[in-house]
Amino acid sequence: MARSLALVVVLVFIALLAGFQADAAVTCGQVASDLRPCIPYVTGQVSALPPACCNGVKGLNSAAQTTADRRAACNCIRSQASGISGLQPNRLSGLPGSCGVHLPFPISASTDCSSVS
């Protein structure tokens, strides 16, 4: 009886964990990788927007198709941006427009990600 109960608890836990992972397909590692080429631009180290940066912004736009994806991407950007020394907020928030991409959420270190839909 105790063994059966333990098995049920483990199966419920696995089902819940799988459900949370299925909510957001975009990972922070993916977002960071997509936007990594933008760091020299958003910190003012280079004046021209690198093509690899725009490719990353386009990749992020393609990947963030659901509310859960967009919120995960937003939270990752907020988290990553706080650790970038010399970040120029206007350059960061202007990335989508500069790349000709319309993201359904702002790229900013101060976005309220819970309001992203």
What does this molecule look like?
InterPro entries: Bifunc_inhib/LTP/seed_store, Plant_nsLTP. Belongs to the plant LTP family. This is Bifunctional inhibitor/plant lipid transfer protein/seed storage helical domain-containing protein. Keywords: Disulfide bond, Signal, Transport. The longest helix is centred in the N-terminal third of the chain and has 22 residues. With 117 residues, the protein is mostly helical. Helix 2 runs antiparallel to helix 4. The N terminus is likely disordered.
Q: Main attributes?
A:
mainly alpha, 117 residues, Hydrophobic Seed Protein, 6 helices, globular
Number of strands: 0
Number of helices: 6
Main beta sheet strand tally, sense and closure: none
Gyration radius from CA atoms, angstroms: 18 Å
- What share of residues are in beta strands? under 5%
Low-confidence stretches: 2-22
- CATH architecture tag: Orthogonal Bundle
- CATH class categorisation: Mainly Alpha
Q: How many structurally independent domains?
A: 1
Cα separation of the termini = 45 Å
The CATH homologous superfamily: Plant lipid-transfer and hydrophobic proteins
Order of helices and strands: HHHHHH
